[in-house]
Amino acid sequence: MAAHSKVFSYEVDGLSYTVTIYEKDGEFLADIDVLEGSMDVNAVYFGDDDQSGKSASLDGPLNMNGARLGGDKVQWDDAIELSQPGLGPDADEKETYLSAGDTLTMSLDISSLDKIDVFGVRATSTTTEAGSIKGVSDNPEEPEEPEEPEEPKDPDEPTYDKVFFNAMPSGDENTAVDAYILAEEQEDSDWFMPSLPEGTEPTFENFLDYYLSLDDLNGDVTELESIVFFDIDEEGGITELFRLDAPEDGFADVDAVMQAYDDALDETETSEDEAASLVSALTLGEAMEMGAEAYLLAEADAAEDDAGEDIFDMA
To answer: What is d(CA 10, CA 35) in angstroms, rounded to the nearest whole number?
Structure first.
């Protein structure tokens, strides 16, 4: 069923059904679903909420004469004949004879769902007291379109407190300069050290962009020998996390630096997984050893008890 639709409901003692109007592949369709009881759907009627003008009607037993909506006569815009009343001996084979769980689908000659605000069903052989209905339904439900699933979020990029860019001097006046760059400006420090602009996420990409943007550093990735990443604890203690060494012929460009960085992160994650597996294996091994020791101690105690009983018996 299409995402946008209208659903009409009808319920009386012994019979209930829904009518779902929707568009599919450029065609407007109606599904009549019987929820309880059974009926032979002989004709359907529909119209908008404008009740002026001449009403459509079918002759004979297919008419909707006398059908009311809130006490008022209904003006129908169109009517469709589906079958003549009467089941005969082959009722189960009649397409318009529906029981609970059955669905009848038909095409509607409309240009928009807005053209239908009232829906009528003329049915005979119904499981109602009267044996037939001229069912009229309005106030259709309009199911909300399902929300599009959110795009999966990328894992958070690692952040750092300080990054050191170690440059290889080329000897000319425009040579790149070594530089430590902080994530946040350091207060009460005797040494000036550049820091990322306020509010900048301290990811490596932002550190690298900032290093290359500083004119007085002459930042050039092709002259970098290594890049070192640091963590700073609450007491100011500095820990080197890992370093990124340039290949023998240096980094070709920024993309090469970022690729080397991503590869280093992958290796770090792999090492952490292997370490976790090793710890788990060691823990299991220790548990098994402890279990074996406990078993041997229990066996030794049992042997001592048996020996004591033998001596007592000999006495």
So the answer is: 10
In this predicted structure, what is the pLDDT of residue 312?
41
Q: Which fold has domain 5-137?
A: Immunoglobulin-like (2.60.40)
Domain definitions of the chain by residue range: 5-137, 162-252
Beta strands per DSSP E along the chain: 5-12, 15-24, 27-36, 38-47, 68-69, 72-73, 78-81, 97-99, 103-108, 118-124, 132-137, 162-167, 179-182, 224-232, 238-245
Q: How far is CA 9 from the centre of its chain?
A: 31
What pTM was estimated for this model as a whole? 0.48
Mean pLDDT of 60-82: 92
pLDDT tens for 241-274 read 999 999 988 899 999 999 999 998 888 766 555 5
List the Cα angle 198/202/203 in 5-degree steps. Answer: 145
Degrees (nearest 5) of the Cα angle 287, 290, 293?
150
Tokens of 105: 């689908």
End-to-end alpha-carbon separation of the chain, Å? Answer: 94
* pLDDT tier, 172 (very low <50, low <70, confident <90, very high otherwise): low
DSSP β-ladder status, 238-245 and 179-182: unpaired
Cα torsion for 127, 129, 132, 134, to the nearest 10°? -110
What is the rounded distance in angstroms from the CA atom of residue 15 to the CA atom of residue 12? Answer: 5
- Please provide the size of the chain in residues: 315
pLDDT tens digits, 143-168: 666 667 766 655 678 999 999 998 87
Q: What residue type is 181 in one-letter code?
A: I
4: tokens are 């946008």
Let me know if 223 is exposed, middle or buried by CB neighbors in 10 A (0-12, 13-18, 19+). Answer: buried
